[in-house]
Amino acid sequence: MMAMITLKSDREIGLMKRAGDILARCFAVIEETIAVGVRTSELDRIAEEFIARNDGIPSFKGVGGVVKGAPPYPASLCASVNEEVIHGLPGKRALKDGDIVSIDMGVIYRGYHSDMARTFYVGSVPSEARRLVEAAKECFYAGMFEARPGGHVSDISAAVQRCAEGSMFSVVKDFVGHGIGTSLHEPPQIPNYATKAKGHKLQAGMTLAIEPMINAGKDGVIVMPNKWTVCTKDGSLSAHYENTVLVSDDGPVILSCEW
Questions:
Q1: Could you give the CA distance from residue 208 to residue 54 in angstroms, rounded to a whole number?
Q2: What letter does residue 217 receive in the DSSP assignment?
Q3: What does the longest C-alpha to C-alpha distance in the chain come to?
Q4: CA 189 to CA 87: how far, in whole Å?
Q5: pLDDT recorded at residue 5
Q6: What is the pLDDT of residues 140-193, one digit of tens each?
Q7: Which residue spans within the chain are E strands per DSSP?
Q8: What's the CATH code of the domain at 231?
Q9: Could you tell me the pTM of the whole model?
Q10: 142, exposed or middle or buried, with CB in 10 Å at 0-12, 13-18, 19+?
């Protein structure tokens, strides 16, 4: 049975907003740094130092793997390039003109988490890749609009899938969004595709990480030998867009602030 979901108090929401503010400002620095020739390890170093300077803790570093036998995650961010969907390990890889790179990152502030992802352009990017990246953003907002009291998780899921497939892209089904709060991953799971089950009923005070992962080709993915990096099975491009969202009586609120 899935654990009970804790509705957040105003104090807790305030701490999550602070975590989200640190995270969003870190993303702004990363966006300015991304350029042809920059190594993904450099992005990770900059992120870790920025988070530490702002009294945060990188929430990804040391987290357990979703694949059995995976070592603890060794970095502060995920840098997934082109066909890499999620969990790209930062390293010596230098970004090339025409790449797209998905950055996924989390921050803990006084015990509360925020989680966020964006896909960025490197240099001159083909129009089809740009269309994919923009579609991932549109899918997030389509799902977020459904994050309202009285609805269900399945409303979010179906909206994301409709948006992706309406743009002639596919949604990744092997990995999902999630609840978030005092842990990085909490109930409920939030698929990016329609399911027969309605899922949890949404209530004011729930905090969710809504994160469409969409592929230019088919939805199949594979886990690489490092037991972390997930790639599209057909080698097509993938894009990722995520925010931490509060379900409120006044409508959904993004806690990982936009910049």
A1: 23
A2: S
A3: 48
A4: 18
A5: 76
A6: 999 999 999 999 999 999 999 999 999 999 999 999 999 999 999 999 999 999
A7: 57-58, 77-81, 84-86, 100-109, 112-121, 170-171, 177-179, 186-190, 207-210, 213-215, 221-223, 230-232, 238-240, 243-246, 253-254
A8: 3.90.230.10
A9: 0.96
A10: buried
Alpha helix ranges (H) inside 34-125: 40-53
The residue count for the chain? 259
Q: Is 65 helix (H, G, I), strand (E, B) or coil?
A: coil
User: Is residue 3 situated within a structural domain?
Assistant: no
- Tell whether the model's pLDDT for residue 258 goes beyond 70: no
What 3-state class would DSSP assign to 18? helix
Q: How many folded domains does the chain comprise?
A: 1
The encoded tokens of residue 182 equal: 């005092």
Give how far the C-alpha of residue 238 lies from the chain's centroid of Cα atoms, to the nearest Å.
13
34 belongs to a structural domain: yes
- 10, amino acid identity: D
What would the mean pLDDT of 227-233 be, rounded to a whole number?
Answer: 98
Range of the domain at 173: 10-254
102-141 residue pLDDT tens: 999 999 999 999 999 999 999 999 999 999 999 999 999 9
Residue 1 lies in a domain: no
Nearest one of 183, 221, 257 to 20, comparing CA atoms: 257
**Structure tokens belonging to residue 251:** 């409508």
* Dihedral angle sign, alpha carbons of residues 174, 114, 62, 102: positive
Residue 110, in any domain of the structure: yes
DSSP string for residues in 168-208: T-EE--SS-EEE-SSSSSEEEEE-SS--SS--SBP-TT-EE
**Residues 45-73, mean pLDDT to the nearest whole number:** 94
